[in-house]
Amino acid sequence: MSVCMFKLRPIVNHDEPLPVPSHNMYTMKPVQEAARTQGQDKAPSSAATGSKGDMAALEGRQEDILKKLSKLRIDIEELRAILRQPSQVTASSLSTSSNVKCPPCPELGESRDIVVYASPKNPPYSLLGLARVWRASCPIQISNHTHSSVKEAPSAALTFVNEVTGVPNLKIILIWKEVPETELVINPIRHIAVRGETNILRFLSRVGPTDYAYEANSNLSQVALLDEVLDNCQRLARSKTVKEKQAIVRTFNASLGKSEWMCGQPKLSIIDTAVWSVLKQQGPSAALTQTLTKWMERCDSMLL
């Protein structure tokens, strides 16, 4: 036997009619009343028939869902197989008479589109230089965009405009943005990024024309020397004192020596492009020697 100390009236009485606003568009019977009326009207035989009909409809919907899931699984497997395939770039796809070809790069995919974020304070002139030098063997198309963090497009953006005849083998989407250093995004889905202009040049030398791949040199000591010059470019871009900058510039002068191009290379290479770009970013503060000044003029005539 239960004993209650207090008795409370119901807070909500569903038997009482609720006021309905006059401006409503549609009227609807109370849910409780509709359910009660439906239960009273149904006979046992009709309830059994309705139950079988509901089960048949449920089974039909389940079959449709299973078919859609099966088709979705097949589509995913086909997409996965496509993404695993390397980029098919052959000499026939190049709009050039040269025998040089760009090697396949699975990271870039079929589209071979990359995004580069660059600060207006340090324009990546090396990308523009590569577009000029690789024009015949591996056409590069550069397009300019300005991020919302930059109030207006830098004056250097007018320089980064090039025309490509035919279909480009590589599309670089250059976005001017307030970033600490130049950044290349290879695959936004996998979040693969390459930071630093010299590191970007290292990457492009591996996916670009084979005769510009400095690492293909069989002389390992020469490759190490070229890598050291690229490291000095990165150091100069990050240096803050005048003394440190002048010391790095002297190493460039030593690497050039009496040769026409950096490190005694027979022709303009990725190394020249990297040094040329970082010295242009420094401006007059670089305090170039007479030898480096003449070398810069040769680079300007070929890369600008």
TrEMBL record:
UniProt KW Protein biosynthesis keyword: yes
| All residue ranges annotated as the AIMP2 thioredoxin-like domain in the record | 110-194
| GO terms, biological process | translation
Subcellular localization(s) per the UniProt record: Cytoplasm
Identification of the protein by name: Aminoacyl tRNA synthase complex-interacting multifunctional protein 2 isoform X2
Under Pfam families, the record lists:
Thioredoxin_16
Keywords tagged on the record: Cytoplasm, Protein biosynthesis
InterPro entries, from UniProt?
A: AIMP2 (IPR042360), AIMP2_thioredoxin (IPR041503)
Q: Report the leader peptide range.
A: none
Species the sequence originates in: Frankliniella occidentalis
Annotated region (Disordered), positions in chain: 33-55
- One CC-aspect GO term: cytoplasm
